[in-house]
Every structure is written in structure tokens, then in C-alpha cells.
Hints:
This protein is mainly alpha-helical. It has helices at residues 3-27, 49-69, 77-107, 147-182, and strands at residues 111-112, 118-119. The chain has four helices and two strands; from the N terminus they run αααββα.
Amino acid sequence: MCTGKCSKCIGIVLFPLAVCAIISNLLLYFPNGNVIAPDKITDLVWFFHGILGAGILVILPAFMMLGAGGAGCCANRCGMLLSVLLAVLGAAGGVYCVVISSLGLISGPLCDTGDGKYIYPFRNDTFTDNYLFNETTWSICKEPENIIMWNIVLFSLLLGIGTIEAVLCFIQVINGLIGFICGTCMRKRKTHIAGM
């Protein structure tokens, strides 16, 4: 497969992933679909790992990859080099999303344990008795309703999306470097000059 076509395919795949990451991050602001006060939302959500990291920082290289894979002005070595630089930015965004999502899964949600105070009841758990592996501890969180499942599903989704985006952007770095060094496999158009 030519480097230009590979670049275009990666760009097409990154768009829906970035949109899903943005939507997943936005849903974390509305636990169980309810609007709550900002100080009652898990602190790691405010790092915008899905909106900025796996969203905007991935959409930018996706546009460039589509341009580098097309027959336009970016279908040349210079365009491929620029796609490499933006793919590094996209990979960094994906890795950022993976790190924050992992921390969100490990530390657990902010919730009311029944006394009206919002705390992180699972933040200092060890890996052996972590809430992720012990569903019986989930009943400690009373409000917002189903907050533990909400956080696990959305942070896991963002973890997976960030991983896929980082891998695809890394593939584009290699693909772009090959396209920069060897060319983009674009067929040279034959020009016929009258009288020759």
C-alpha cells in the first residue's frame, strides 16, 4: 500500500475515535445523566483528556493525514513530513488520555458516602483490594447514583480510544517518514507537449 493511501486510511479512522473521545469526556461531567455542581465532579475529568488529548490533538493530525493522502498540495514529501510532526502531537494526545484515564480508573470517583460529604473513598486502595476487582465495595457510594459504573465505563472507553489513537499516530509517524524519504507513490502525470 502506498504511504499516501495508508495516511488517508489512518486519518479516516481517527475522526470517529476523536469524536467518541470528546463525547465520552463530556458525559463524565454529567454523572448518570444528571447535572451536578462542578465541585462534585471527579477531579480528573477537569484535565480534559478526552476533549483536548484524544479529541482536538488527534483531529488536527487527522486533517493533515487526509491531505497528505490525497492528490492535493500536501501529497508530497513536505506534506508527509508535516503529517509526521502532527502525528507525534496526536500520539502525545492519545498517551495523555491513556494516563489520565488510567489514573481515573485507579483512584475511583468522587461520591457521597451517605453523610452528605463528597470524598474519594477508593483513592488510597491497594491493588489487591481495589474497588475495580471488588464489586461489593461499590455500595459505599450513595450519590450520584451509579457513579462507579458510570466512571468505569467512560474512563475505560477513553483508555481504549487513547490507546488506539496513540498506536495509529505512531504508525503514521513511521508511514510519514517512509513517505518523506521514499516519496508518496503518487504516479507522475504524463504531460504531452504539442509538437513533440
